[in-house]
Amino acid sequence: MTNPTFNFLPKKNPLKIISSLLKSDSRNKAAVLTLFIGVLLLGLIQTSVNFSYSKPVTRSAAQASELTNDVAALVFGENFDNRNEMERIIEDKIKFVATRKAFMPSLYVVAKHESEIRNVARSKNIPENVALGISFLENGGSETAISVAGAAGIYQLMPGTARGQGMRVDRYQDDRLDPNKSIEAGLSYLLGNYRTLGDWGLAIWSYHAGAGNVCKAVKIYAEAIHGETLGVCGTAIGQYVKQHAITVHTILSNKAVQARLTDKLKDDSAGYAYKVVATSRLFELNKTLGDREFAERLSELAANLQSVQKFLES
What we know:
The protein is mainly alpha-helical. The protein has 18 helices and no strands. Helix content is 65%, strand content 0%. The relative contact order is 0.10.
């Protein structure tokens, strides 16, 4: 849409007209004032109209913005119609996450670095609530946490993964323990997996399971459902996922994937994406309720004095 123009405005510079009138007879002063006010108002009107037309917001753009921050839609799919199943899974993970010992310290770590996490996510076109949810789930309540497996920092990067993102990890220096460097590297790693897999839900799962395991799951699914044999982890995987509009929930619900892969993994890898849905919701709920009410509800939930549904009411 082109910006409107106003052909009825003076062709000459209005300021020159005003200046010439001021130099003439004093009887023109009233006319000068009227002209000046008229020109000013017309200028404001034109500026206002131009601004309103300069960046039209379409309904689809607004919907895309909402979807970007709805982690459940990224995991289950925008058109997932079994809401009862979705809420049952999410509520189960919310109770699991919210009753962990490190829950509140983990929440505070994310709250402390929320602005930086959002800024880096935005710069990389990563859904912000995904970035927040992963950090919430990963950090263990400390900026410098080191897991038994050797992952460290608020994004819990393994040494090899960190070095792959250009970080220094050795006996003299560990960049993973620098929160800002950890945020940058963790989200760069997530973005790389998204570019390989072609879907944010699968990228979320890959942050824990690794892109290799996620690619293997997609291959098992493709063979079981469509009789297709996909190549190595790369472009073919992403193209297949987009072509068939596959979500991580679709993959994780498949019996062949469960039998041949996820049931054999050591931890609750298959639940990771759902836990990120849970942490993203819990983080937003804390901001809505405030620390005091949120903590009160949390203690009641831990003591089984209220349901997850009641806990989530805002």
